[in-house]
User: Which sequence fits this backbone?
């Protein structure tokens, strides 16, 4: 039976937070309590105890700690600067840190400048010799992914695409995308919308492709045709340029009565644009997003909730598994938890 920090806390009659701090050698816990927690964890067979270094009992330093986390153990997270919203990746990082800190790892954030697919220069704070694994997050090109793989360090990707032959190029963590998007189509249909369009960001991420496929299948299941004029692809400015060039808003009979967006930031951009053009939402055009970031709640956006913190935890757990199992086949971990959130930008 797996022993958890909660089991240790119950055994000693103390809080789980105290146990966590003790095992990670954090401030706020006495040396006596730390030693007691450590000894109890060893006796109970706590598996993560191997992640802690014990200090020599013959240390000459009178006030030396009995044990300490291995501070040189590091997982590097590569992010591309210019992600649409930090309210998406911030909870993902929080989830990673929660898991990694329990195992004595530090999370090293390496931000890369967004490019058009060219190779990047590794930032100065990336030290391969001090790194035990890499987590990648963002729309990296194949060249950029090749750079990460060329480090020969264990690599976990969040939401990244597969190679053309259908094989994973590294361990991957993803949310479910197709089913919730399909469900949103059916919800809009049930609310009376019949000209349901879709806005894509033009990226080739597997996540975005699956959301698009969910829209297509949903339209098929409710018996609606997909009109290409109702679907938009590319950066938001590119989409707006096309809408205005074709004077699409002058006659809404030829415009969708609902637009599903691949993510919340796309939907919020549409909402702001429609407000400027005096297009009332949802009376004239309904809008939905995907991800349920903080900005979507402020905007009153109908969207699909993604558990971003759990996504980070899953990525951290997978990289730790890969470090211990370097020769096992690549894995894709799926999270199937989602929720449709109905707010002001669509009829209920």
Assistant:
């Amino acid at each position: 039976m797996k022993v958890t920090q909660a089991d240790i806390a119950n055994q000693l009659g103390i809080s789980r937070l105290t146990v966590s701090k003790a095992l990670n050698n954090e401030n706020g816990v006495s040396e006596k309590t730390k030693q007691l927690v450590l000894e109890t964890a060893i006796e109970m067979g706590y598996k993560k105890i191997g992640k802690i270094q014990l200090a020599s009992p013959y240390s000459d330093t009178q006030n030396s700690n009995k044990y300490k986390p291995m501070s040189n153990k590091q997982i590097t997270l590569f992010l591309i600067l210019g992600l649409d919203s930090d309210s998406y990746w911030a909870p993902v990082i929080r989830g990673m840190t929660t898991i990694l800190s329990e195992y004595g790892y530090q999370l090293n954030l390496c931000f890369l400048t967004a490019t058009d697919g060219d190779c990047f220069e590794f930032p100065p704070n990336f030290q391969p010799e001090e790194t035990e694994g890499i987590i990648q997050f963002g729309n990296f090109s194949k060249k950029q992914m090749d750079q990460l793989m060329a480090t020969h360090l264990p690599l976990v990707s969040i939401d990244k695409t597969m190679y053309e032959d259908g094989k994973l190029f590294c361990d991957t963590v993803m949310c479910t995308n197709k089913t919730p998007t399909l469900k949103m189509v059916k919800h809009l249909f049930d609310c009376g919308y019949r000209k349901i369009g879709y806005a894509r960001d033009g990226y080739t991420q597997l996540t975005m492709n699956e959301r698009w496929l969910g829209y297509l299948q949903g339209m098929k299941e409710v018996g609606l045709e997909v009109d290409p004029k109702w679907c938009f692809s590319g950066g938001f400015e590119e989409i707006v340029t096309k809408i205005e060039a074709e004077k699409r808003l002058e006659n809404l009979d030829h415009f969708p009565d609902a637009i599903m967006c691949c993510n919340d930031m796309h939907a919020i951009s549409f909402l702001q644009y429609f407000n400027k053009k005096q297009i009332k939402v949802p009376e004239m055009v309904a809008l939905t997003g995907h991800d349920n970031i903080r900005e979507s709640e402020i905007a009153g956006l109908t969207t699909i909730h993604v558990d971003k913190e759990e996504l980070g935890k899953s990525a951290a757990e997978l990289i730790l598994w890969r470090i211990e199992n370097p020769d096992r086949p690549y894995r894709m971990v799926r999270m199937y938890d989602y929720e449709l959130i109905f707010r002001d930008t669509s009829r209920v």
Observations:
- The chain has eleven helices and 14 strands.
